[in-house]
Amino acid sequence: MGDMSLVGPRPCLFSQQELIAERAARQVFDARPGITGLAQVRGIDMSSPRLLAETDAQMIQTLSLRSYFKYILLTVGGQGAGDRIKPNSE
């Protein structure tokens, strides 16, 4: 359908209002959403919306063919888990 890309900002939930506002301020929604990206390979999760939106914007501004495939390879290698919820360490 062409609605998503392999590399791009991960879609957010409608309930994540702070993340939506941060991404809107940085025009992150102008890019197609993806499965993985810079935030995921850097281990940035959705618990820090501002940092996540800043990282997504940085990725969009600097995305090249080389970095596109780099993010895919890093994800396949196990680094693309940044946005999953981390268990509490008790």
Give a quick precis of the structure.
The protein has 90 residues and is mainly alpha-helical.
The helix content is 40-55%
Mean pLDDT level? 88
Q: Termini separation (Å)?
A: 43 Å
Q: What is Rg? A: 13 Å
Shape: globular
The low-pLDDT segments are: none
Strand order of the largest sheet: 1-2
| H/E element order | EHEHHH
Oligomeric description of these chains: single chain
Report the strand count.
2
Biggest sheet record = 2 strands, parallel
Structural class: mainly alpha
Instruction: State which percent range the strand residues make up.
Output: 5-15%
Structure description:
With 90 residues, this protein is mainly alpha-helical. The chain contains four helices and two strands. It has helices at residues 17-25, 38-41, 49-62, 65-79, and strands at 5-7, 34-36. The protein has a two-stranded parallel ribbon with strand order 1-2. α1 links the parallel β1 (5-7) and β2. α1 (17-25) runs parallel beside α3 (49-62). The chain is globular and about 30 Å long. The termini are far apart. The relative contact order is 0.22. The model has no long low-confidence stretch (mean pLDDT 88).
